[in-house]
Amino acid sequence: MKTTTTVAPQVATAGAFRATRRRRTSRSLVVTCSLAVAVCALFVLTMMVGSFQLSAGEVIASVLQLREDPSVDFVVRGLRLPTAASALAVGLALGAAGTIFQQLLRNPLASPDFVGINSGAGLAAITGIVLLQVSGVAVSALALAGAVAAALLMYVLAWRDGVAGYRFILIGIGATLFFDGLIGYMLTRAQLSDARQAMHWLTGSVGQADASELRLLLGALLLLLPTAVLLQRQLRALELGDDTARALGIRTELSRAGLLATAVVLTALAVAVAGPIVFVALVAGPIANRLLGPATGGIIPAALVGAALLLTADLIAVHLLPTALPTGVVTGAVGAPYLLWLLATTNRQGAGG
Amino acid sequence: MSSSNNLARRASALGPGLAVLCVLLALVAFLSVTLGSRSIGLPEVLRALGNLDTDGSINSTVTLELRVPRTLLGILVGAALGVAGAILQGVTRNPLADAGIMGINSGAAVFVVFAVTVLGVRGAGVYVWFAFAGAIAALVLVYAIASLGREGATPIKLALAGVAVTAGLASVTTGIVMTNVETLNELRFWQVGSLAGRYAPVLTGVAPFLIVGLIASLGFGRALNGLALGEDMARGLGQQVTRTRAAAFGVVAVLAGAATAACGPIVFVGLVVPHVARFICGPDYRWILPYSMFLSPIVLLLADVLGRVVVVPDELQVGVVLGVLGAPAFVGIVRYGRLSEV
To answer: CA geometry: angle at B159 spanning A346 and B293, to 5°?
Structure first.
C-alpha cells in the first residue's frame, strides 16, 4: 500500500484511496455476515422439513440441547442433523478448496472436480467397492487416500522448474480421462448390485456421511480454514504473477505448495465424506466474487456460498424431486448451465482460460 | 534452398513409408484374426479365410463371423479416430483437440440412456444411431462454447469446456441410471470402449459413414496447411476459412460420431497418433492425414490383440488398454511437446 502513496503523494488521492478501501472492507463484512446468516437459516430449514414437520424453535432447541423431547430429539439429532451437518461441512470445504484452486491456477474453470482429484478418489473407492467388497468407512478411507495420491501424482508430473498453472490443469484432465477409463472397467467387472452402489457413490450424496469422518472433516475445517485465510495475503500476491510475488518477498513455490496442500486436503476429506459432488467447488468462488464486488477472492465468503449451495441442493434432491436422488445429480444439473454462462461471459472480457 | 531440397527428399521417402505402414497394417490385421482366447491353428484360419464360408465347424465360424468383422471394424474405427484427431488439431490449431476430450462420449452416452429408458430400445445394432446423434450434438456444443469470446478456442478452453460438458451430461445420465437399474446394466458395458461383441450388424451400419468420411477427409490436406498459417494468412491466400472450418467439422463429426457409436468411448488414439504422424512427416497435412489413417488402426488393433492375450481366457477391453497406455503419452505431450507448433 505504501507504493501507492509514494506514486500519488497528494493528500486528496490518499484520502480517496482510504475511503475506497474502507467501503470495500465494509462491503465484504456485510456480504460475509449475510451469507453466514443465510447458511444458518438453510441449515435449520433442512432439519425442519420432511415427513415429520418441525418448527424452527423445536429444531434449534433440540440441536442446542435446551429442551428434552425424545421424539423430536430422535428425528433431529438422530436422523437429520448428520445429513445437514455433512452438507454444511462438505459445502464449506468444497467452496474454500475451489476458490483456492481457481486463484492459484489463475483460471476460473480450474476446480478440483475437473483436475483429476475427484476421479482419483473415485477410482480408489470404486476399486474398494467392487474388488474388495468393502463399504462404509473403508470406502471413505480409500477415497481419501486416492484423492491425495492423485494430487501428489499430478503435482510431480506437472513439476518442471516449478508448477505452471496450465500444465497442472492439462495433466489433471489427462489424469481424469485415465482414471475414468479404469472406473468404467471396474463397473463392467462388478455385480449389478455393486455397480449400482458404486454409481451412487460416484454421484455423491451428503446423506451417506459417516459420523467419524464427519467429525474428522469438521476438525480439519476448524484448523484449515483459518490457515487458508492466513495464507490469503500470499495468495493475493501470487495472483499478480510469480515475478511480482517474488519481488514482494514471497517464496512462491513454498506458499503455492502449502495452499495447494490445504485445498487438496479439504477436497479429499469432502470427497471421503460425501463422494465426488460436482460443480460446488467450481461455482462457489465466482458467485462469492460477484457478491463481493471489488473485494474479490475471499475464502470465507466462497466457503459460505459453497455451504449454501449444497444445503439448497440437498433440499431439492430430497424433498422437491419425485424420487429422492443423490445430491450430486442436482448440483450437476444446476451447475452445467451456470458453467456455460460463465464461459460465455469471462471469454467476452477476454479473461477466460 | 536447402530446406526445399530437404522437403523434396522427405516427400520422396514418405511415399515408400506409407507402403511400409500398409504392410504393417496387414500384418497386424492378420495377427488380430489369428490370435484370441480360443486358440485356432493357423491352417484352419487360412482355410476359413480361403473358403470365405463357414464349413460348419466352430473354429471357422469364430474366425469368419467374429474375428474378421471385429478386425475390419477395428481398422475402420481406428482410421476414423486418427484422421478425426488430425483434422480437429489442424482446424482448431490446437495440439490437444481430440474428440474424446471434447465430450463426444458423454453426449453419446446421454442419447443411449435416453434410447434405452424412454424409447425402450435394446441391442447394440439399434442404439448406434442414438449414440451417433448424441456424439455430434456434444461435439458441436463443446466447440461452440469454447470458441465464444475473442481468443477463440484455446487449448485450455477446449479441454475445460469438454470436461465441463462431460460432467454436466454425466450427471443427467447418472440421474436417469440411478432410477433405472436395467439402463445401468446396458450403459456400463457400452461405456467401456470395446471392439468385442460389435459384429456384422454394427459393422454394416457404420461402415458406409466411415468410408465416405475417410475419403472426404483426404481432400482437406491443402486447406489445413493454409489454416496452419493462421486465419488471416489463409484468408489472404484466398481460402473460404469459415466454410472450410464448417466442412472439416462436419467430416470430424461423422467420423468420430460413427466410431464412438460403434465401439463406445475410445480416447487417446485420436489425440496421440496425429502427433506421431506429425513427428514423422513434418507439418504437411497432405502427409499427416494418410499417415494418421494407417498408424491409428495399427495402434488400435495392437491394443485390442494385447487386451485379448494379456488376461486369457478373459479379455481387457481395448478402451482400457488404450487408456492405460495413452495416459503416459498424453503426459509426455503436455510436458515435453512443443504445444504451439501445430
So the answer is: 145
pLDDT tens for B73-102 read 899 999 999 999 999 888 877 777 777 777
pLDDT of amino acid A305: 92
Number of residues in chain A: 353
pLDDT in tens, B203-219: 888 888 899 999 999 88
Q: What is the pTM of this model?
A: 0.76
Q: Distance between CA atoms of B161 and A343, rounded to whole angstroms?
A: 8
Give yes or no for residue A116 having a pLDDT over 60.
Answer: yes
Of the partner residues A114, A167, A332, the one whose CB lies closest to the CB of residue B334: A167
What interface predicted TM-score (ipTM) does this complex get?
A: 0.71
Dihedral over alpha carbons A62, A66, A70, A73 (to 10 degrees): 20
pLDDT at position B37: 65
Domain boundaries, chain B: 2-336
Question: Which residue is listed with cell 459445502?
Answer: A91
pLDDT digits (tens, 9 = 90+) for A88-101: 999 999 999 998 88
For residue B331, the chain A residue with the least C-alpha distance is A171
Q: Residue A159: beta bridge partners?
A: A163
Smallest Cβ–Cβ distance between A174 and the set B168, B322, B334 belongs to B334
Which of the listed ranges A155-164, B89-98, B242-251 does the model predict with the highest average pLDDT?
A: B242-251
Looking at beta carbons, which residues of chain B come within 8 Å of A281? Answer: none
Q: Can you tell me the distance from the alpha carbon of B154 to that of B146, in angstroms, rounded to the nearest whole number?
A: 7
Distances in Å between the alpha carbon of B145 and those of A106, B141, B142, B152, B298?
20, 6, 5, 10, 34
Domain range B2-336, CATH class: mainly alpha
Nearest to B168 among A188, A339, A350 (CB): A339
Q: Which domains does chain A have, with CATH numbers?
A: 26-348 (1.10.3470.10)
Average pLDDT, chain A: 80
Q: Spell out which residues of chain A touch residue B146, defining contact as CB-CB under 8 Å.
A: 343
Strand partners, A163: A159
Percent of chain A predicted with pLDDT > 90: 9
Please state, as a whole number, how many other Cβ atoms lie within 10 Å of the Cβ of residue B330: 25
Contact yes or no for B252/B84 (Cβ under 8 A): yes
For residue A107, report the phi and psi dihedrals to the nearest 5 degrees: -150, 125
B-chain CB neighbours of A157 within 8 Å are 331, 335
Instruction: Write the CB contacts of B308 (distance below 8 Å, at least 6 apart in sequence).
Output: B35, B36, B37, B315, B316
Helix ranges (H only) for A164-251 are: 165-189, 192-203, 211-230, 232-239, 242-247
Tens digit of each residue's pLDDT (9 = 90 or more) over A206-253: 777 677 778 888 888 888 888 888 877 665 666 666 677 667 766 667
**Diameter over CA atoms, chain B:** 68
DSSP string, B198-248: --HHHHHHHHHHHHHHHHHHGGGHHHHHHHHT-HHHHHHTT--HHHHHHHH
Instruction: Kindly list the residues from chain B whose CB atom is less than 8 angstroms away from the CB atom of residue A348.
Output: 148-150
